[in-house]
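[Automated response] Your request has been received and processed.

Submitted sequence:
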Amino acid sequence: MSKLREAAGMAAALFASTMHRYYGLSQGLVARGFTGEIPLPPYVSRPVPRRFAVEAYAGILLLLLAQLWITWR
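Generated structure:
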């Protein structure tokens, strides 16, 4: 029973220190003008080069063949 109390005490202390650090971080962000939004640049879709697609499919095929070889061995 004492081990359970010790574990609960350590968990509570860890939670309290984590919340203290979170409060300090959030206060620092507010002081610097953080509004809760992170603006991201617009997403631009680009085609995948053929070489990368061929390499990806070859790797997947190699992994599948290795899995089959290990399974049936």
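Summary generated for your ticket: The longest helix spans residues 2-31. The two ends are 50 Å apart (CA to CA).
If you did not submit this request, please reply to this message.
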